[in-house]
């Protein structure tokens, strides 16, 4: 912890989008007349029918519903493209920075992007994709990923973007769950010089009978490596687009019509299909993108996330494009070809706003100041952080070394479920404290509760809830509304439970401490312990396993797996490697355990429940703080795990 405070830089306050007075006024309005506040926010979009019904929400289980702007009509792709053509047609929408720094970057204007999206929309329509159909997008960070998303939005198809690092098995689950009709992929991805066999992964996935709904696969030629094309199922994206008209009518969408599904891990079961709708989501993404990043017409904005995650959806695609911003789309990774890549890209494109994850900051911090100082970074004016708690040390390094103490750092807390940022400083209005996401944005009613659901006042710690809805909130778990209600609204009746814990200080600032459920946050990626456990169990030698998170210097949290082998099998390193490979095959490399510890048994209560609290302590090497183990069925198990840890 640090009690350092950083005032708003004078230059920032002077012409901020929202200065302290404007923020205070927004807070008052949002408190006293939320309908008027959210009506005004919605005017930033172009509606074909402006909503008269603003908020219609009940978290009461007997009458549960969440609707925003329910009688509004609009189209997200029109808001991201057509709307800008008259004023910003030649403005650069996307700067595509390729994996290989020696290749030139590509600039796509709003006009060029609009044309591509129209062609793609026509292609999808020609292939029989209709409003409400699901389309799976499994692409690397190339402009076609943005084009594909917006083309779906244009015709009212619901996209489901699957991160390119996920395995064929994960892809099967996500295609099957939403019954996709069409998949958009590339021959290969390219990350840090390494090729990712996307099309081959799709081919494997589509052999599964769970994927029989898929009629067409569109393949973007990216690396140009030869891939098997199965006729007539597989079609060449570019050939198909070239045949289409460069304009396409946009589907009128009701505000509550679905825009996309994005799968995310929870504490139990398979990943959930988080469903976002059109009007509220787009309003909220655009509003927060402008407010939190203090967006100006001439900014060059760069968010390093992948479009496979929600940060890419809201703060690479929908927010920035709805705001007419120029945004960098980066194909590579921060450490390739070396640790100065980000700073070189910033100089090359004169980036003014840089938004990344603490894990990247910590990894680059480890390389020292020289790679940063070798670049100018004079264009930068604002820095952002997202995805996991940022430790004050990393925050201060980011501020001092990367931002030369000139650029405010906005630590933005939010979730796939929330659609956009909920707790964050506003750079022209909020005094900063390193490591704190500071305060909720206007209209966001955050609170802390104890385990019984009693609201806690003042400076305290507790579980973070949201007492009321906001337009960007998810509407359901695709195909499983009961699970949606069960997961988020039953723990603390009448409120949305985030799954996070937080501390609130005497100034009302929030310090997010991390997940309080069985979700681990590895390098800013959410991974459910149950998912990893069921992947490990797929290895034939494994009898049982329990997975927990443990503190990791770079990744924030690492994955620690306790594995019990079937009787009579010998534990050895080769087997560890095989188990690791099994997880990579079933989920993807991001879920591979950092540590596997052989466990002769797991600590269980007499009713058979695994005591994860103890396993977390052992993994964290807090061996003196194991607490009461007397309720265990076999307390001796703990000692053997402690001994195993020491070895
Ligand atoms: C964590 C990513 C601390 C948190 C946008 C949350 C954070 C989960 C922050 C959501 C932050 C995200 N400080 N923790 N600024 N931002 N988190 O769905 O635990 O991938 O619940 O959304 O990341 O992860 P998700």
> How many domains?
2
Q: Architecture of the largest domain, according to CATH?
A: 3-Layer(aba) Sandwich
Oligomer: single chain
Cα(first) to Cα(last) distance is 32 Å
Mean pLDDT: 97
Q: CATH top level of the largest domain?
A: Alpha Beta
The strands making up the biggest β-sheet line up spatially as: 12-11-8-6-7-14-15-24
Residue windows where pLDDT falls under 50 for at least 5 positions? none
| Broad structural category | alpha/beta
Q: What is the number of strand segments?
A: 31
> Which molecules are bound besides the chains?
5'-O-[(S)-ethoxy(hydroxy)phosphoryl]adenosine
CATH topology of the largest domain: Rossmann fold
Q: How would you describe the shape?
A: globular
Kindly report the name of the CATH homologous superfamily of the largest domain: ANL, N-terminal domain
What's the alpha carbon Rg, rounded to whole Å? Answer: 24 Å
Binding site for Mg(2+): 539, 542
Keywords: Acetylation, ATP-binding, Ligase, Magnesium, Metal-binding, Nucleotide-binding
Domain Acetyl-coenzyme A synthetase N-terminal: 31-80
Modified residues (N6-acetyllysine): 609
What would you note in describing this structure?
With 647 residues, the protein is α/β, with parallel strands linked by helices. The protein contains 20 helices and 31 strands. The strands form 8 sheets. The chain has an 8-stranded mixed β-sheet with strand order 12-11-8-6-7-14-15-24, with helices on both faces. A 7-stranded mixed β-sheet has the order 5-4-17-16-18-19-20, with helices on both faces. Helix 4 crosses helix 11 and helix 10 packs across helix 11 (310-322). The longest helix has 17 residues, at 110-126. The two termini are 32 Å apart. The model has no long low-confidence stretch (mean pLDDT 97). The structure holds 5'-O-[(S)-ethoxy(hydroxy)phosphoryl]adenosine.
């Amino acid at each position: 912890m640090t009690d350092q405070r950083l005032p708003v830089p004078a230059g920032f306050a002077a012409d901020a989008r929202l200065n302290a007075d404007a923020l205070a006024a927004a807070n008052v309005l949002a408190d006293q007349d939320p309908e008027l506040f959210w009506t005004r926010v919605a005017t930033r979009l172009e509606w074909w029918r402006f909503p008269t019904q603003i908020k219609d929400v009940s978290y009461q289980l007997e009458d549960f519903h969440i609707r925003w702007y329910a009688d509004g009509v609009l189209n997200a792709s029109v808001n991201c493209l057509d709307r800008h053509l008259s004023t910003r047609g030649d403005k650069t929408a996307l700067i595509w920075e390729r994996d290989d720094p020696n290749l030139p970057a590509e600039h796509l204007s709003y006009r060029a992007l609009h044309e591509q999206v129209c062609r793609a929309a026509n292609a999808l329509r020609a292939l029989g994709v209709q409003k409400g159909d699901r389309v799976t997008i499994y692409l690397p960070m190339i402009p076609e990923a943005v084009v594909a998303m917006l083309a779906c939005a244009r015709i009212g198809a619901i996209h489901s973007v699957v991160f390119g690092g996920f395995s064929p098995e994960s892809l099967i689950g996500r295609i099957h769950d939403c019954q996709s009709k069409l998949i958009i992929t590339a021959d290969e991805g390219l990350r840090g010089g390494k090729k990712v066999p996307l099309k081959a992964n799709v081919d494997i996935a589509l052999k599964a009978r769970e994927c029989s709904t898929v009629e067409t696969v569109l393949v973007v030629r990216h690396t140009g490596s030869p891939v098997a094309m199965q006729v007539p199922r597989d079609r060449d994206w570019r050939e198909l687009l070239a045949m289409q008209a460069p304009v396409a009518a946009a589907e009128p969408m009701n505000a509550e019509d679905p825009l996309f599904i994005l799968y995310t891990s929870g504490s139990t079961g398979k990943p959930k299909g988080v469903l976002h709708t059109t009007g509220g989501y787009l309003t909220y993404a655009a509003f927060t993108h402008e407010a939190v990043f203090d967006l100006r017409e001439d900014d060059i904005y760069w968010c390093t996330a992948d479009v496979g995650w929600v940060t890419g959806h809201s703060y690479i695609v929908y927010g920035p494009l709805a705001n007419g911003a120029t945004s960098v789309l980066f194909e590579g990774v921060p450490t390739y070809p070396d640790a100065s890549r980000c700073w070189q890209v910033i100089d090359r494109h004169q980036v003014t706003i840089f938004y990344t994850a603490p894990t990247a900051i910590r990894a680059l911090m480890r390389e020292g100041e020289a790679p940063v100082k070798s670049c100018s970074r004079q264009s930068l004016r604002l820095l952002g952080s997202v995805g996991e708690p940022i430790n004050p040390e990393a925050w201060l390094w980011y501020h001092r070394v990367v931002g030369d103490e000139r650029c405010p750092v906005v630590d933005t807390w939010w979730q796939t479920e929330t659609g956009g940022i909920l707790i964050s400083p506003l750079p022209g209005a909020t005094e900063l404290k390193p490591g704190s996401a500071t305060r909720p944005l206007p209209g966001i009613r955050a609170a802390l509760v104890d385990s019984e659901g009693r609201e806690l006042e003042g400076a305290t710690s507790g579980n973070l809830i949201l007492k009321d809805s906001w337009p960007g909130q998810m509407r359901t778990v695709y195909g499983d509304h009961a699970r949606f209600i069960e997961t988020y609204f039953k723990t603390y009746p009448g409120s949305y439970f985030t799954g996070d814990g937080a501390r609130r200080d005497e100034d009302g600032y929030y310090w997010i401490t991390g997940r309080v459920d069985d979700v681990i946050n590895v390098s800013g990626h959410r991974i459910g312990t149950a998912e990893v456990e069921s992947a490990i169990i797929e290895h034939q030698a494994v009898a049982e396993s329990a997975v927990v998170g443990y503190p990791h210097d770079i990744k924030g949290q690492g994955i620690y797996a306790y594995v019990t082998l079937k009787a009579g099998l010998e534990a050895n390193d080769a087997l560890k490697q095989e188990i690791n490979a099994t997880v990579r095959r079933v989920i993807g490399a991001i879920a591979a355990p950092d540590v596997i510890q052989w466990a002769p048994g797991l600590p269980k209560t007499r009713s058979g429940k695994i005591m994860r609290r103890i396993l977390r302590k052992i993994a964290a090497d807090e061996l003196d703080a194991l607490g009461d183990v007397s309720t265990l069925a076999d307390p001796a198990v703990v000692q053997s795990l402690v001994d195993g840890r020491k070895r």
